[in-house]
Amino acid sequence: MIAMFTAMSAAGAAQDSTMVSASIALGGNIVFFTVLSATGIVASIAGLTLTAQQREHALWLILGIPRRRVRTILRVELLALGLAAGIIAIPFALLSANISLTQWATTGLNLHGAAATFEPWHAGASVVSGTVPCMLGGWGVTSRIAKMPEMQAFRDAANPVARLRAGRVVLAFCLFAGVVGMWIPGLLLDLYGGLPQRTAFAFAGNLFLICLLLLMGPWVLAPLMRAWTALVPARGVAWHLAVQGCRARAARSVTTILPFALSISVVALFMVMGSVMPGSSARIDDVLVVLGWVFVVAWVGGFAVIALVGSERRRDSAVIAVAGARRGVIARSTLYEGVIYAGTAVVFGALVLAISASTISMAAHIRLAELLPGIPWASLGGLALITLITPVLALAAQAYAASRSQLTRVLSSS
Q1: What secondary structure does DSSP assign to 158-189, as a single string?
Q2: Rounded Cα–Cα distance for residues 216 and 222 (Å)
Q3: Is residue 24 packed enough to be buried (19+ CB in 10 Å), middle (13-18) or exposed (0-12)?
Q4: Per-residue confidence (pLDDT) for residue 410, from 0 to 100
Q5: Which of 85, 318, 386, 387 would disulfide-bridge 130, Cβ 3.0–4.6 Å?
Q6: Does residue 413 carry a pLDDT above 60?
Q7: What is the chain's Cα-based Rg?
Q8: What is the chain's mean pLDDT, rounded?
């Protein structure tokens, strides 16, 4: 946002209306995709954090703290964390804005020497960006914690049950209406703008579809994970432990998969669109101009989830070790867990790619066999490989730490 308004101000001062329009178009798209991904990822992490602590919250209720006060405490906690995050983010926001301006200038935009410097509204925008996703992710969870019976909280703490809440249902219905509302004119009608307009409608419909599928992650990503892992012929103990652990901890698995699935699916959609629209490009560096910060948000979010549940994973490893499993088997199962997370994200991206290619080729009146060769498969393969390596390396560090920890200390601290 800072980069967009800085570029607009510089172009306006130079009376360059073309660059003002270009800054709005490019900056607006980047802001939209980045805010969308950041809100979804931060909200899901905030919700997982509170859900993972519901055993402690149940103890509060047992000790006699009123339910309304528990809910208030948790919401104030979220608000304080969001405010702290927003304040800490101010210098990083300015740094990111200047990086974006440099990146836009390399694409050919004449920004007239625009450089981001601190203005008072930057602090307000940063604080809002920090607090809103936290409150969105935790508002419903805090209400559920305050209403949940204490014994149910203890029972669900090990494996939280995904429930369809009214807010999720309403948002899902709106996104579904967006999919249908975009696909009907894009695929079935002859529009005044011709094929480019039809293709744009199909693109928007696929974007709504990605948001819908990820919003319904517990009912989409979890079954997808179970389906493809069931097809793997491996029968080793380590793989079996990893699969059963991911399935048993479905909430943890879905939240870990979501950031990687979001980034790879959106990139796949953009590359399909770039291979169809005249004058556009499907190269990875062009896609990164718009989605670069989405990658940053997604990867940091993925690492955050892995770090967040590290203590829970160490406790599970300690229990398995006490049951007689060798440390090598436990370490391999932890690495396989990363493979399962990344594999589910890649499979989800492949499904989005197939749907996007089919619908966009139909909208553009291009045969699918002609569209597929134009997609940069090497870039997508590299992205899939990076997606595979990232969680595996993050979990390798946790596996190493777990192998050097004392079992009695881990179990007593849990």
Answers
A1: SSPPP---HHHHHHHHHHHHHHHHHHHHHHH-
A2: 10
A3: middle
A4: 53
A5: 85
A6: no
A7: 23
A8: 82
Q: Yes or no: say if 185 and 191 are a contact pair by the CB < 8 Å rule.
A: yes
Answer yes or no: are the C-beta atoms of 248 and 280 closer than 8 Å: no
The token pair that represents 137 in the structure block: 């992710």
Instruction: Please give the pLDDT value at position 278.
Output: 57
- Structure confidence by residue, pLDDT tens digits, 330-383: 788 888 888 999 999 999 999 999 999 999 998 888 888 888 888 888 888 988
Residue by residue, DSSP assigns 73-122 as HHHHHHHHHHHHHHHHHHHHHHHHHHHHHHHHHHTT---TT------HHH
CA–CA distance, 233 with 136 (Å, rounded to integer) = 41
Structure tokens at 191: 């529009």
Q: How many CB atoms lie within 10 A of CB 402?
A: 23
Tens digit of pLDDT for each residue in 87-146?
999 999 999 999 888 888 887 777 777 888 888 888 998 999 889 888 887 887 788 877
Token pair 């989605």: residue = 291
- Collect contacts of 151-160 with beta carbons under 8 A, ≥24 apart: 151/58, 153/54, 153/55, 153/57, 153/58, 153/61, 154/55, 154/58, 156/54, 157/52, 157/54, 157/55, 157/58, 159/248, 159/249, 159/250, 159/251, 160/51, 160/54, 160/251
Amino acid at 44: S
